[in-house]
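Work Package 4 report. The design task specified in the project plan requires that, given a folded chain encoded as structure tokens, an amino acid be chosen for each position. We show below one input record used in the internal validation round.
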């Protein structure tokens, strides 16, 4: 049985807003429940005793572990990238690479060595489904993030060239799919 009201297939660009919203929500939650309490309780306004800081906070494990939920959006960005490549849409592929790089950098900055190269590919595995992925070094992750951002820049340049050559009529995303930059690919490139 299939739900006649459910969406089973969609365009790659429709992933942009959900990825942005959910990644931002996850990062804001971590900021609110982790960084803000630390700042409130460790900043001293008394100059004579500024070296004497009082640490009277307890960080719940669920707060620190909350950023692992970014892997959901990392997987969505990976799926979006795969869909954009199938659609042969270099502009959306560039956006997907930027989103994937942003999310991976936050995860790696937070936890150090994390699953990266095989992470986020569960939906792309088909019948060869694996539940575990190896941990990758932060150095290798960042080298690949820089490579991914260069690839994103190349995708944006290719999209602009296709627009100039009249192969594409428009390279911008639907503004409904991107509230942050109103669908403007030039802003994503910047």
């Amino acid at each position: 049985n299939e739900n006649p009201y459910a969406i089973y297939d969609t365009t790659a660009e429709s992933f942009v807003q959900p990825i942005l919203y959910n990644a931002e929500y996850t990062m804001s939650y971590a900021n609110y429940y982790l960084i803000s309490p630390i700042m409130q309780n460790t900043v001293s306004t008394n100059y004579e005793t500024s070296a004497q800081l009082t640490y009277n906070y307890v960080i719940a494990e669920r707060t620190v572990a909350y950023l692992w939920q970014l892997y959901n959006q990392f997987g969505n960005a990976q799926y979006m990238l795969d869909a954009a490549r199938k659609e042969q849409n270099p502009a959306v592929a560039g956006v997907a690479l930027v989103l994937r790089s942003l999310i991976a950098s936050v995860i790696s900055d937070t936890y150090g060595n994390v699953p990266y190269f095989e992470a986020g590919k569960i939906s792309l595995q088909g019948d060869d489904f694996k539940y575990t992925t190896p941990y990758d070094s932060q150095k290798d992750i960042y080298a690949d993030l820089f490579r991914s951002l260069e690839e994103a820049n190349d995708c944006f340049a290719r999209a602009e060239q296709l627009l100039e050559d009249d192969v594409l009529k428009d390279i911008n995303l639907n503004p409904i799919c991107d509230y942050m930059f109103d669908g403007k690919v030039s802003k994503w490139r910047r």
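The mean pLDDT is 85. Validation will be extended to a larger panel in the next phase.
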